[in-house]
Write a sequence for this structure.
């Protein structure tokens, strides 16, 4: 059982020739809207892997909110604790996708940022009944800290994906985190140690332990993932594929891993291998939610 506390964003994908200059008015090629947000992507990945998945989050009473709610329900994510905010709109990401493939993103937190500690009390059942609680940084830090506190009191394993990267994470939150999963950039922003060779990854793990987090996985894109847990450390290579769009690679990894971890970390290498495999499928498809595979597709990929 996985519970995700996180963001629900409508992704507005603006297809543009190039970024406009200050003061310029420019025509777009196209504009499309799709369900997204780190929390939503991770929950869908966990649910597609077969985990009973619950969501704690918020939407506005608007069209984007309906889209996000339906996207979760269609993917068998339990929506009981998705709160409908009356004063605030659904979170949105404006993704400016240029002809040369580069992207620039503006985020409007909206309802995601309006979640409160009181909402965690309302949703406490979803947290205390889970095996694993996952959160990111697209919802308020004090809300995450409250949820992790409740999780730890009830023996729930806590996973923090510190994204988007954030400096000065409260020590209290790190102290309540069982496993932190940053990518290379996020790890460096938190520890100040650049991720390059094995020694630098070990140095990151030591730093995270000093900060009160006993277990670490750093995802390093096409290379794979480094892990350092209370049981040992190592590197699990990624699968070699032709990547066309890496959107949601990290989210697939985290959602899948959450679905694979039992309460102890003894199966971590297998869980990472499976998660690398799932993400390698995501990067071969366009978009966020549509490219996240299900359990059978990941299994089948191992057999080919
Ligand atoms: P994020 O999307 O958060 O930046 P990463 O880029 O580190 O995260 O990717 C997460 C995981 O996705 C990696 O650990 C790896 O398993 C997989 N992955 C990412 N890019 C590729 C790629 N080009 N080829 C194969 N697997 C990839």
């Amino acid at each position: 059982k996985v519970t995700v506390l996180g963001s629900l964003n409508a992704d507005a994908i603006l297809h543009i020739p190039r970024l406009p200059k200050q003061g310029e008015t420019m025509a777009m090629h196209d504009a499309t809207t799709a369900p997204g947000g780190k929390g939503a992507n991770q929950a869908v990945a966990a649910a597609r892997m077969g985990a009973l998945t619950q969501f704690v989050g918020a939407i506005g009473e608007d069209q984007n909110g309906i889209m996000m709610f339906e996207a979760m329900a269609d993917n068998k994510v339990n929506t009981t604790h998705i709160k409908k905010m009356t004063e605030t709109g659904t979170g949105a990401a404006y993704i400016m996708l240029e002809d040369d493939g580069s992207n620039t993103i503006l985020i409007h937190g909206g309802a995601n940022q309006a979640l409160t500690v009181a909402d965690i009390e309302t949703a406490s059942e979803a947290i205390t009944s889970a095996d694993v609680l996952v959160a990111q940084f697209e919802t308020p830090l004090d809300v995450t800290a409250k949820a992790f506190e409740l999780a730890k009191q009830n023996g729930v394993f806590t996973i923090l994906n510190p994204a988007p990267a954030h400096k000065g994470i409260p020590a209290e939150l790190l102290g309540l985190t069982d496993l932190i999963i940053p990518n290379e950039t996020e790890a460096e922003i938190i520890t100040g140690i650049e991720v390059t060779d094995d020694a630098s990854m070990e140095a990151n793990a030591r730093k995270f332990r000093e900060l009160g987090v006993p277990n670490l996985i750093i995802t390093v894109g096409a290379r794979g993932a480094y892990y350092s847990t209370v049981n040992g450390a190592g590197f699990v290579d990624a699968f070699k594929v032709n990547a066309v769009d890496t959107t949601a690679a990290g989210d697939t990894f985290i959602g899948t891993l959450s679905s694979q971890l039992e309460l102890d970390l003894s199966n971590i290498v297998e869980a990472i291998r499976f998660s690398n495999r799932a993400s390698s499928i995501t990067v071969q498809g366009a978009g966020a939610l549509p490219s996240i595979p299900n359990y059978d597709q990941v299994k089948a990929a191992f057999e080919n």
Q: What stands out?
A: The domain at 2-7+40-90+111-303 is CATH 3.40.1190.20 (UDP-N-acetylmuramoyl-L-alanine:D-glutamate ligase).
